[in-house]
Every structure is written in C-alpha cells, then in structure tokens.
Amino acid sequence: MNQPLSFDPFKVWKEFYDKTESHFGKMFDESMQKEDFSEWMGHFLNLYIQYQNMVKQSTEKYLEAANFPSRADISNLASLIVNLESKVDDLEDIVETGLQGKSEATDVTKEINEIKSNMSNIEGKLATLIELVKKQGEQFSLVSNETASTQEKKPRGSK
Predict the structure, then answer these.
(1) Cβ-based neighbours of 31, under 8 Å, separated by 6 or more
(2) Digit-coded pLDDT (tens) for 82-123
C-alpha cells in the first residue's frame, strides 16, 4: 500500500514560477522607474535606429548592385506611367474629336454633292422650260402674225 513516489517536473516548475514571479516583478518595476533605466532604454533605441539605418543602406546598396529597382525608382516609374496615361488620354480625345470632325466634313461633302446634283436637275428643267417658252413664244408670234395678216385682209367695216 505504499504509493510510489513519482517526480513531476511541471509541478516543480510551477512552484518555482509562483515563488519567483512576484519577486522578479517587483524588482523589474523598481528598476524601470529609475532614471538609469530610461537612459539605458534611450541608448538602446538610438543603437536600434542606427542598426535600422545600416540595414536599410546595405539593402539599398545590395539591390542596386543586383540591379533591382529601389522604391524611389519605382515611384518615379509610376509617376512617368501616370503622365504617359494622361498624354494617351489626351491623344485619344484629339483623335476622337478629329474623327467626329471628319465625319461632319463627310456629311457636309455629301450635302454639297446633293446640292450640286439638285442644281443640275434644276438647270435641266430650266433649260426645258426656256425651250418650251421659246416654242410657245414662236407659236404665239406665228399666231399673232396670222391674226394680224387676216385682219389686214378684212375690210375695216366688216367684223
């Protein structure tokens, strides 16, 4: 009926953690409230900023040596593309306006050709009318001459 003694490492670790956590927590709180900690943290942050700048510069140099574009290169390229797109849009507007003008000019040309054909039809009709008027005038003058000659042959007193 003896229970075997077993070793539980997690139980030992939890007991150690519970005993030391409050002690170390108080110690870190006290040390963080001191001026020395603030100076040390400021020095550490300055070193970290220097490290970041060094990594940034070395990365830029590596990418430049490997012939990769930098952010500035990509930004410049993007602005050039935007400018190119606006110029293409302007050219597209000009071409569309020109095509509309060309279609309007084509419409005007068609109207002028229609007017010319109408004028030639009118000229033909006028020529026909002039010929008819001349013929009628000739017939009228013949009839007038005949009437005049018959009236001259009649005695004046007879009607």
Answers:
(1) 37
(2) 999 999 999 999 888 887 777 777 778 888 888 888 888 888
3-state helix, strand, coil in the chain (%, to 5): 85, 0, 15
Residue with tokens 């390229």: 77
Alpha-carbon gap, residue 92 to 87, rounded angstroms:
9
Q: How far apart are CA 105 and CA 92, in angstroms?
A: 20
Closest by CA position to 71, among listed 56, 86, 83, 55: 56
CA dist., res. 70 & res. 61, Å (int): 9
**How confident is the model over 138-154, as pLDDT tens digits?**
777 776 677 666 666 66
Cβ–Cβ < 8 Å for 70, 64: yes
